[in-house]
Amino acid sequence: MQHPLGKQNILIRSFHTLTFLCAFVSSTTAYAQERPPGLHAFFLHYTIVSHLKERDDKRVSRLMKFREASPRASTSLAQFWWAWALRSCAGYLDTRIETISKIRDSSERERLVKQLEDDRNHCVEAFIFDRWSDINESIENKFAAFPKDN
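The structure assignment produced for this chain is given below.
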């Protein structure tokens, strides 16, 4: 028995979904290329949230000192929180991708794909905002292992 939507329709929808995922990944890569080399995206989003929450650069300065003292440990910490943030945003982003894949107008699709990156960034920042105390506690615990000469 043939699928009610037809084999060709399913292939076209799969192709569109794959196209949007590729566009999303390439826009994420472009975003990553705008950062200074070696700076994980988490640090930028952490800084944005820090300015919103505290309007004080003490925590950002401490995180950057930790990054200078141990790039590997700070990047590992950043990757942990970044991955958790993306996992928490996955359902929302998947819904957005599915919605975009149903739109037939190519100019509207392009606009929404570009907006998808902003949506991802806002979702990650909301995650950091909500987990602010947990993130800072983990930074403090890691930072405590390093000398505080600076």
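Interim note for the steering committee: Residues 35 and 89 are 22 Å apart (CA to CA). The chain has a mean pLDDT of 78.
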